[in-house]
Amino acid sequence: MTRRCGRHEDFQTAIDDPTVLDLRSSLAQKKSIADSEQLRRLEHLSVLDAYRFYKPDDVIGGTSAAIIHGIPLSRGFPPQRTRRTRTDAAGREYDARLTLGAPGSPVRVEVWNVRRTYTSRWVVRRQAELGDTQRTPRWQGVPVTTAPRTAIDLARIGTTLDGLVACDWLLADAAGRHGHDGRQRMRERMAEAINDCSGLRGVNRARAALDSATGSSESVSESIALHRMNELGIEDIRQQIVIRDSEDSVIGRVDFLVVAADSTPVVIEVDGAIKYSGYHSVGTAGADNPLFREKKREDALRRMGYRVVRLVWADLWDVSRLRMLLREAHIAC
To answer: How sure is the predictor about 306, in pLDDT bands with cuts at 50, 70 and 90?
Structure first.
């Protein structure tokens, strides 16, 4: 919870939770994207738990199901100038990107219902029929769409990018838990979910998202970077490649490796602000400084003949700038 509410006792009961209060306090000092997203997820879960007007045939889905399953969304806090719009049945343009919203802003529960659609300040109820294989056992007494179906729905109600981030995360999670076979089973389950959505709006976006997902991305930023490079037509993109020197010593594992038009190998790294949190001072140096370690690794890669392209969060949302940075490294795009 982010503030006291004198009118709703359900909200009052959570305000003394020390983990929430401590997180809110530290957020004011750190202004960390990671802390903001964690706080926002706690807010969503609190609303999902406190909401008392679920219908008997409601199934929690969309971003609400993503929160329950721990699936990340593509858009936490992107640059404000970026837009991804579509037009609805009435011809009205709307922002199609999915987001958790800023901490403290209103939260709406998202559900699927076989008979009715309804939107209010507190709930978005979309019409859909879900088979038993597309829903999990009940969460707080209400069924939830399965993780594979949730990922497919994120692409259908949002954008291909939203679906790609979700599919990538699920594939990587399955591989981490059960290896290659687990990743393959998860891909098959998502393909089954797409088949169950055949004929529904947005299913082509879902197919494109699953086709692009590799399960090798280790962050939302890397999933977005992969999507952008696919959009730019870059071929033979390799991920999480371990590079060794002439003495077979490991220099490091790189996010992406591609071959430039002049046959020079190019390392593409996606930097995140969270990664370097607390190391903004120029005077901070040594083995404990991530900036220093990254600089040493980049120097070693360049000595071995690699070109290095470093991308930051803003670059991923500015396709023109991204294309320019890649072309400067002689990557055909």
So the answer is: very high
